[in-house]
Amino acid sequence: MEIAKLLDAKGLACPMPIVKTKKAMNDLEPGEILEIHATDKGAKSDLTAWAKSGGHELLKDSEENGVLMFWIKKG
């Protein structure tokens, strides 16, 4: 999977991970992938819902050492 941009949202509380994700997505072309790292537990449900409502595709999410990682393909 080729990542177009990495967003570090670790340490940010809601709603900042979504705000930063939205801003980062504006810099990408359709089909490009944004990788997001966050520590806010609410980010999982927030980013899943945001991606769906925005016409983007959540390709994968995982957690490693308390860091939530998401890969979202721009719609």
Automatic annotation (TrEMBL):
<comment type="similarity">
    <text>Belongs to the sulfur carrier protein TusA family.</text>
</comment>
<protein>
    <recommendedName>
        <fullName>UPF0033 domain-containing protein</fullName>
    </recommendedName>
</protein>
<dbReference type="InterPro" id="IPR001455">
    <property type="entry name" value="TusA-like"/>
</dbReference>
<feature type="domain" description="UPF0033">
    <location>
        <begin position="7"/>
        <end position="31"/>
    </location>
</feature>
<dbReference type="InterPro" id="IPR036868">
    <property type="entry name" value="TusA-like_sf"/>
</dbReference>
<dbReference type="Pfam" id="PF01206">
    <property type="entry name" value="TusA"/>
</dbReference>
